[in-house]
Amino acid sequence: MTDPVLKYYDEVLFIVVVLGFLSYIGNFIAKKILGNRGKLSNQNDETEAFFQNGQLIGTLERLLIFIAILIQEWSLVGIVVALKTIARYKELDDQNKAEYFLIGSLFSLLWAVSIGVLVLLLIKETGCFEQLKFLVDDKTMNVKIL
């Protein structure tokens, strides 16, 4: 008889690695892409908080979009983008902040969708992660992955 803790070791490790890619690696790449775009000449504590909060929001956004891809609930993607836009609406009057926000949002969307599709492909096309096969069951999967 196998140890129940070790029974799901591969799946848990896989999920931890994926979450690391979505959050830490995603934040690292986003910082590289955004570069000095976030550095405003008249930066103060308020704008610094804007950018720090943006990093946390971006991480949560990528996680929610990833979950939406896995459970194939496409309306959740729209809700995440809409909530993020509504929350920052007044701050987007500043052109620099608006561009920063748009670039970050588009990167987060692209990153989360890419990781989500890659995960679904790995689960469906490999013999690994048997406990996660329910995510790509032909009866529940609405999208064909080539």
Compact description:
The chain is 70% helix and 0% strand. It has 5 helices and no strands.
Task: Give a structural overview.
The longest helix is centred in the C-terminal third of the chain and has 31 residues, at 95-125. The mean pLDDT is 76. The protein is elongated, with a radius of gyration of 18 Å. Helix 2 packs across helix 3 (45-71), helix 2 (9-34) runs antiparallel to helix 5 (95-125) and helix 3 packs antiparallel against helix 4. It is 70% helix and 0% strand. It is mostly helical. It starts with a helix and ends in a 21-residue tail after the last helix.
List the helices and strands and how they pair.
Blueprint: H1 4-7, H2 9-34, H3 45-71, H4 74-87, H5 95-125
Helix pairs in contact: 2-3, 2-5, 3-4, 3-5
Spell out the key features of this protein.
146 residues, mainly alpha, 5 helices, elongated
Quote the beta fraction: under 5%
Rg computed from alpha carbons, rounded to a whole number of angstroms: 18 Å
How much helical structure, as a percent, in the residues?
55-70%
Total count of helical runs of at least 4 residues: 5
Structural category: mainly alpha
Extended strand count: 0
Return the string of H and E elements: HHHHH
Distance linking N and C termini: 38 Å
Oligomerization status of the protein chains: single chain
- Report the mean per-residue pLDDT as an integer: 76
Low-confidence segments, ≥5 residues, pLDDT <50? none
Shape: elongated
Main beta-sheet annotation: none
